Automatic annotation (TrEMBL):
Protein name from the UniProt record: Ribosome-associated protein
Source species: Kineococcus xinjiangensis
Similarity-based family: Belongs to the prokaryotic/mitochondrial release factor family.
Signal peptide: none
Example GO molecular function: peptidyl-tRNA hydrolase activity
Region annotated Disordered, chain positions: 36-55, 115-157
Gene3D superfamilies reported in the protein's UniProt record: 3.30.160.20
Pfam family, one: RF-1
Length: 157
């Protein structure tokens, strides 16, 4: 029995993360600041690849975002400098056949990228001195090595 035309596999524009992208516990990027573009994914897949826009490009304007504070923006701009194009960071996902899964992958990738960029710098290393024992072992090893080299020399007296 025919039940009418099958729904066409195509673009899915709403439904994923309507409230925003959770980056850290204290920072959620509003949905309005994220831009998604959909295109056809390359590679194998036959007819499915030729008809669906499953590749997802997720972009976030770091320089123009009101949800980032000045310190966070400066840190993100510094750490993401090699990935920024005109102050915008872009993440691409095309590893899944379904657009919805690619959207989720792109959002997860963007969240981890921003979280890593916004993480506070690690504490600076505390200067320590080598222990007496390690200094003694180092000097003894150098002397042994010098003795080996001295014994290799020819004695032409």
């Amino acid at each position: 029995m025919l039940a009418g035309p099958r729904p066409r596999a195509g673009r899915i524009d709403q439904g994923v993360g309507v409230e925003g992208l959770q980056v850290t516990r204290s920072l959620t990027v509003p949905e309005a600041e994220l831009r998604e573009r959909f295109s056809r994914a390359g590679g194998p897949g036959g007819q499915g690849v030729n008809t669906t826009d499953s590749r997802v490009e997720l972009s976030f304007d770091v320089t123009g975002s009101p949800s980032l504070g000045e310190a966070a923006r400066a840190r993100a701009l510094e750490r993401l400098a090699d990935r920024l194009v005109d102050g915008v960071v872009t993440v691409v996902a095309s590893e899944h056949r379904a657009q919805l899964r690619n959207r989720e992958a792109a959002r997860a990738r963007m969240a981890s990228l921003l979280a890593a960029a916004l993480a506070p710098p690690p504490p600076s290393r505390r200067a320590t001195r080598p222990t007496k024992g390690s200094q003694r072992r180092r000097v003894e090893a150098k002397k042994r090595r010098g003795d080996v080299k001295r014994l290799r020399r020819s004695t032409d007296d």
